[in-house]
Amino acid sequence: MSGRFRKEESERKNGGQKEEEEEQQEQEEEEEEEEEEEEEEEEEQEQEEEEEEEQRKKERKKERKKNNVLDCLCSLSLDFSQAGQARSSHAVLRPGRGRSGRLPAVNLSSAVVASCWGVARDCFPQAWCQLNMVEVILKLVERSPTTSCKNIHLFTIQRQFQKSVLVH
């Protein structure tokens, strides 16, 4: 009897150990799965953060380019005070108030205007035409008393603007 009892006792212990080992193994597998899930979530979160950072960089770059265009426009060389107030007083630019209803002539460096158009096209390949250059130039002309190079008609600028819009 004592031999049989020992045998049963050892089987119970072994069976209990096997169950404990199986439970421990299952628990380890569950922990591994949880760790893998956590790692995947962390990777997804990192990827989302990287994408958001990329988007912010792109937006900052666009904003810088837009500001460069505006800076370029603001540096346009315009002059009405030194060109003789009597001769160019009609050119305190109100569209359509020049002779024969056309836009008045403006003292503007054509090279600067051309570079503005170039910068604008580079900065806004599709949407740059939303920045209405003619309006911006008109506003700048109204408040800018600086020296200039050549006479260029605003009508020419407007025509160039419209052509550029058609091209893009």
TrEMBL record:
Region Disordered, annotated ranges: 1-66
Residue ranges with Acidic residues bias: 19-53
Record's compositionally biased regions (Basic and acidic residues): 1-18
Highest taxon in the source lineage: Eukaryota
Listed name of the protein: Uncharacterized protein
